[in-house]
Structures are given as C-alpha cells and as structure tokens.
Design a protein that fits this description.
Pfam families: cobW (PF02492)
Shape: globular
CATH class: Alpha Beta
CATH superfamily: P-loop containing nucleotide triphosphate hydrolases
Organism: Aerosakkonema funiforme FACHB-1375
Family: Belongs to the SIMIBI class G3E GTPase family. HypB/HupM subfamily.
Number of strands: 7
Order of helices and strands: HEHEHEHEHEHHEHEH
Protein name: Hydrogenase nickel incorporation protein HypB
CATH topology: Rossmann fold
GO molecular function, one term: nickel cation binding
Number of helices: 9
C-alpha cells in the first residue's frame, strides 16, 4: 500500500525534526545541561509554575529559559523578573516549537553566555495539547500540565501528550472544592495512557505540591550529574 503524499510529508517532517532534536541534545550533553520540555494547553499554568520554580531553584542551580509563544513576549517578560536568561521565540502561526526553532535559541544562549555554566534549560512550549508532544526539541524529559478546569477526559481525548510525559502536574488544585471534577478519575485516565509517569497535583496559588515538584526536578538534575561523573571517570 502506498502512502498518501500528506502522510509521507508528515513522516519526513518528523524525521527531520528528530535529527535536529538529537543535535540539540548533543549540545546540551556537551555543556552538561539538562533540558525539560514543558507542555500544556493554553492557560493550564505553565508560566505560573515556572515562576514558582525559578523563585526557589535559582538559589540552587543555574537556569535558563527558552520561551515559546505565537506572537508576544508577555510570558518571557514575566520570567525575566527572576534574573535568569530568557530567550523568546515567536512561532507566528505555528502551534508548537520544533527543534530548529529551539536550535536558534540554543545558539543565542551560547553566544550571549557561557553555556557550560548552566544546569537546567526550561523550554516553555506553545500552549497546545496536540502538536508539542509530537515534535521533540532535544529535551531530556517531557513535563506536561493538565489543569482541573480542563476536566477528566483530556488524557483520553489527547493521548499522545500523556503517553509521552515523564512528569504530569495536575494544576490549579486550589479550585477543587469549586469544581465537579474527580481528581482520582483524572489520575486513572492518565494511567491508562502511561503507567510510569510521575503525577504531582499542585497549586501555584497555595503552594500545594510544589515542594514535591521541586524534588522531582532535583532528582533529574542529580541523576544527570551522576551520569556525567561516571562518563568523565570512564574517559
């Protein structure tokens, strides 16, 4: 059976993007940087989460942000208040960041700073539950957010995002008393898609679950540091 032109084009695009993502990851590995790709639908709380994360973890790690948005730098400006490098990428009509866009951000980071000084790069992707999950950007881990206001069915309706996630944050937990939403059902639906994902209920407003999230980030960075030490010992 022959593929349609559109199907073949889609496969070629994903293949080319993957090659670029692998190249980006090589840069991150060379510099000793861990990269997270942070994804969600619009309004789920990505930027609020990153604000809370930067407020705490910049005391422990050197962090930079690559901020994706379709047209503005509003979110980038929010994060610049935490005195970290924030490289804004406007995607125009594209509903996601791809590896080529992030490559441009990486080269800007390398031009303006010493990249080997950084421990973590946070890529805040464009708000969308579909496209970002399909296009790797060179990340070492995918972090997905799902807000309580989105309901229980999203993991079943948009499975790829949840299948690919290494960590899922259920956000806006402070709204739970006011919503007819079953958190346990959300968890069960996510587990249908991905039995191994770490699930952390959080509220950027009250602080619920944030320390658990910070510990997860620390664990990823500690693991990366251990791997780098082992590789350097071998060589």
């Amino acid at each position: 059976m022959h593929q349609t032109f559109d199907a073949a084009l889609g496969i070629n695009l994903l293949h080319a993007n993957q090659a670029g993502a692998d190249h980006n990851r090589e840069h991150f590995d060379e510099w000793g940087i861990t990269c997270f790709n942070v994804m969600s639908s619009p309004g789920a709380g990505k930027t609020a989460l990153l604000e809370k994360t930067l407020a705490v973890l910049t005391n422990e790690y050197k962090i930079a942000v690559i901020e994706g948005d379709m047209t503005t730098e509003l979110d980038a400006d929010r994060l610049r208040k935490y005195n970290v490098p924030v490289i804004a990428i406007n995607t125009g009509r594209s509903c996601h960041l791809d590896s080529k866009m992030v490559s441009g951000g990486i080269h800007r980071l390398a031009h303006e700073y010493n990249p080997s000084e950084f421990d973590l790069v946070l890529v805040e992707n464009v708000g969308n539950l579909v496209c970002p999950a399909e296009f790797e950007v060179g990340e070492h881990a995918k972090v997905a957010l799902l807000s309580l206001t989105e309901g229980e069915d999203k993991p079943l309706k948009y499975p790829v995002m949840f299948q690919e996630a290494d960590c899922l944050l259920i956000t806006k937990m402070d709204l739970a008393p006011h919503l007819d939403v079953d958190v346990n059902q959300i968890v069960a639906n996510v587990r249908q898609m991905n039995s191994h994902v770490t699930i952390i209920p959080v509220s950027a407003k009250t602080g619920e679950g944030l320390e658990t999230w910070f510990d997860w980030v620390r664990s990823q960075l500690d693991r990366s540091s251990t791997t780098k030490h082992q590789l350097s010992t071998v060589h």
